[in-house]
Amino acid sequence: MKEESLIFGIRAIIEAITAGKTIDKLFVQKGLQGVLAKELTALARQRNITITYVPNEKLNRLTRKNHQGAVAYTSPIDYYKLEDLVLNVVESGDIPLFLILDQLSDVRNFGAIIRTAECTGVHGIIIQKKGGAPVNADTIKTSAGAVFQVPICKVDHIKDAMFYLQASGVQVIAATEKATDTIYATDLRIPTAIIMGSEGKGISNSVLKLADKRTKLPLFGTIGSLNVSVACGVYLYEVIRQRL
Asked: Could you tell me which of 69, 75, 77, 68 has the C-alpha nearest to residue 28?
């Protein structure tokens, strides 16, 4: 089991990337100059690693060591390529079932969703590189270790992942209170990807527009929404109910 770890120093981070380590976050000091700094940024871009430029004070808060203007976190898991995952599922003969998490920010909700996904046979979870909850120690604990069992894909843009899934014959279902149809009136026996939105804003409008269908859960109380991990569990078990 790999644990999330902090790497500091430009040369150390370059070596980690070159060795194939999965970099979850890379922080570089604003305005950093020098040959090594240019080598690091060029390598990060080549490997599609997102660079977050921050003040030196931010780096000092991350570590008291001599960081030389660069700090990185390695991921406790290896992420899958979406294309490879979809191909593997299709070739297996299973009916594909994917989860797309649009800017989910709470690591405990993320962990709980991963745990439910593992229990319901989800083939993969798709998240965006920027803006979402990280896979860290809290995620691992809340997922009860399921994070090591369910493939997770990190993509540049959720919308591109949706286009690829739709082109692969997978219907994309959005879970939103803005829908008129309930999830119970939707056919989930065919290849399906379910989008769950963030805790505060739900699914972004640009993503919502691209979904094949919008669905909701019926609510009979005065509170207008469910916790996202609870709602996700209801959706996934409705898939299981229909497919059994």
From this structure: 69
